[in-house]
Amino acid sequence: MGVTMEITTQIVTDFRAYYPEFGDVALWPDSGVITALAEGDAETGKRWGIYPDGRVVSIKKRGMFAFAAHRLVMRKRSAGGDVGAAYAISGKSVGDESTSFAVPSVTMDDLTINGDLPLTAYGVEFMRLRRRAGTGGLMI
């Protein structure tokens, strides 16, 4: 089992600076951000490298932040919060307000490996970074 890092106020500040859409503390309280960042740390094991001090942006920091952002959005959605469409819009009509979404088809293997990650842009970014970190589809 790996050692988890302490999620400091500086890490929360760095996350909010990297993803300014999470800057509203009333909408995205520190407690939820800290929990999501801790989950992001746990999902980015030693193959991801270290979380750097200062302004350096590493694959560990980017992966941790992307996973945290994904978790925050998914929690808000599950609580009934409106944080935008889960999928890309493929068509839209104004008369009678019709909207079509590009829903990806997934296999059971996709669901087992990726869970709900494909449902947000942040989750997709995390999957891309996970591949670059050399973990392939494995969750470490």
Question: Can you describe this structure?
Answer:
There is one protein chain. The chain is mostly helical. It has one domain (9-132). It has helices at residues 9-18, 30-43, 59-78, 108-114, 121-132; strands at residues 88-93, 98-102. A hairpin with a 4-residue loop joins strand 1 (88-93) and strand 2. Helix 2 crosses helix 3 and helix 3 (59-78) runs antiparallel to helix 5 (121-132). The model has no long low-confidence stretch (mean pLDDT 82).
Based on DSSP secondary structure assignment, what is the total number of beta strands?
2
Strand content: 5-15%
**Cα gyration radius (Å):** 16 Å
Distance between termini?
A: 10 Å
Question: How would you describe the oligomerization state of the chains in this entry?
Answer: single chain
| Biggest sheet details | 2 strands, antiparallel
Query: Which secondary-structure class do the elements indicate?
Result: mainly alpha
Total number of distinct structural domains:
1
What number is the mean pLDDT?
Answer: 82
* Number of helical regions: 5
Question: How is this structure best summarized?
Answer:
The protein has helices spanning 9-18, 30-43, 59-78, 108-114, 121-132, and strands spanning 88-93, 98-102. By secondary structure, it is mainly alpha-helical.
